[in-house]
Amino acid sequence: MNKATPIFIPYETKSREFDGKLLLISHLLNEGFYNIFFGSRGGTKREALKYDNGIYIFKSLSVDEIPFYKELKRKNFRLALIHAEGGIHYKDNKDSIISAYSNKVFDFIDINYVFGEAVKNDISKYLNSKIYNKTIVSGNPRFDLLKEKFHPFFENKTKKISDEFKDFILINTSFSVANPVVGKENFLKYIKAEKTYSQGVVDKIIEKSDFFHGVLNDYIEAIKYCANSLPKVNFVIRPHPSESLSIYEESFGSFPNVNIVKKGNVVQWILASKGVIHYDCTTGLESLLANKPVISYLPRVNKKVVAWLPIYMSKQIKEKEFLKENIDKIFEDNFENDLIPEKISTFNSVMHNVKNHSAMIIAKDLKSKYNPLNQLVKIDKLDTIKRNIKKDMKNIVIELGLKKENNSISWKKFENCKKNEVSNKLNRIKVLEKMSYETSVIQLGEELVYIKRKN
User: Fold this and answer.
1) Buried b (16+ CB within 10 A) or exposed e, 318-338
2) What pLDDT is stored for residue 54 in this prediction?
3) pLDDT for the residue 102
4) Cα 82 from chain centroid?
5) What is the DSSP letter of 304?
6) Which residues of 297-314 are buried (b: 16+ CB within 10 A; e: fewer)?
């Protein structure tokens, strides 16, 4: 590999991935990587194909992307994976592990970063030694941000939320398989067509979709009960990024103390809340990292399709009357999370972030393997000008009403990548992490920025 070694980091769901990946980028810059491209999957993919080497960090794998993997390998790229679902919290992980780290595509991956030792052990149990030997326990950078050290990173947003919603209970729903924004029919059509998924995973998702439809209705009933019983308590429902808002808006439109939001990093909402309610959502684990009261409300359970760890780590409540009682306890400062030593030990084995700094681990590991040197890539200025002109023309066309704005689900989740936001957040992280490098951020189009280290 040549001296430049550019790194390409895509994100898809801004509210979930953006800040954690910027934390990783800050550590990569600190370790001496000078060239990082950050943006949409399409934007990073198109940019990467212009180079003859580099590092590409994926969030998932797909059989449909094999031609892209092959082309990157032909160009001497190193491919890393930080799987977005790398915690995989099912009791029986076999089908999920086999699909997430499919043999069909994993030969292209050079490094596999996973949430914790438990996932690596499952890889050893269900997959071949080649995959196991490429696997490094790192945690996921987005969970680093829950720790007290990074709370100042969110303080402005957290204060705005607190000012608007006062003391509130945050309800994180994770029912996208039953309430997908693209519609259930389209969602299941996609699942059945995705070649990366094993038949066992497809069957589990279909079963989960039907089961979670009932759970969703139970949650709506319970929230209505609590909102009516506790009129002075504010509730904020924060649906999963892939969930439709319609059912919540229709159900709670007449409730003055129930608010539905779907914006911003979940961390700022967790930090601003008095406590968190979820079903089997990863945000339950994030809330524990933030030292918040956490309830898993379980009106019904199917052990085959629920993510067991967020439930196991939370205070488990099955009846809406007890749910209301425990919300009272949260406001009376009389609530206790059921964190016995056995639970803490399990948590540590699944989520490496509890005691470790994931972004630092990954950045140092990549440096040790690929030893970056201080050479900058050459940006095609003409191409950048063309992209920005194309963006300006697109906005003009939309303003004139000649074309509708892109409202696809992937774009709604991605939103955009603005250089000022990237630059400001990197600077805040740099201060918190006591780093001294200098950077500049160049906009390469609304989907992509180039971050270069200057010293």
Assistant:
1) eebeebbebbeebbeeebebe
2) 95
3) 83
4) 11
5) T
6) bbbebeeebbbebbbbbb
How far is 5 from 288, CA to CA, in rounded Å? Answer: 37
Q: Which two tokens stand for residue 306?
A: 């629920």
Work out whether strand 258-260 and strand 234-238 pair parallel, antiparallel, or are unpaired.
parallel
Express each pLDDT in 374-413 by its tens digit. Answer: 778 888 755 655 555 555 455 455 455 555 555 444 444 5
pLDDT digits (tens, 9 = 90+) for 19-57: 999 999 999 999 999 999 999 999 999 999 999 999 999
pLDDT digits (tens, 9 = 90+) for 178-210: 999 999 999 999 999 988 888 888 999 999 999
Q: Strand order in 35-39's β-sheet?
A: 135-137, 111-114, 77-82, 54-58, 7-10, 35-39, 448-453, 439-443
In degrees rounded to 5, what are phi and psi of residue 436? -125, 0
Two tokens, residue 253: 């439109």
Helix (H) or strand (E) segment spanning residue 450 = strand 448-453
Contact 243, 177 (CB under 8 A): no
Do 374 and 34 contact (CB within 8 A), yes or no?
Answer: yes
Residue 402: the pLDDT is 56
User: Which residues on neighbouring strands pair with residue 170, listed in sequence order?
Assistant: 236, 276
Q: Once rounded to an integer, what is the mean pLDDT over residues 340-345?
A: 90
Cα within 13 Å of Cα(271), Cβ side: 22
CB pairs under 8 A, 24+ apart, for 436-440? Answer: 437/29, 437/30, 439/29
Could you tell me if 293 and 274 are in contact, meaning their C-beta atoms sit under 8 angstroms apart? Answer: yes
Distance between first and last Cα of the chain: 21
Q: Tell me the C-alpha distance between 354 and 395, whole Å.
A: 44
User: Does residue 62 contact residue 348 with C-beta atoms inside 8 Å?
Assistant: no
According to DSSP, residue 243 is labeled B
CA distance 60 to 62: 7
- Reduced to 3 states (helix: H, G, I; strand: E, B; else coil), residue 14 is helix
CB 25 within 8 A of CB 425: no
Tokens of 290: 């933030």
Which residue, chain included where needed, has tokens 């998932």? 60
- The rounded distance, in Å, linking the Cα atoms of 1 and 417 is 28
Residue 198: the pLDDT is 84
Write down the residue that tokens 């056995």 correspond to.
342
Residue 189 near residue 209, CB atoms below 8 Å = no
The residue whose two tokens read 């070649």 is 195
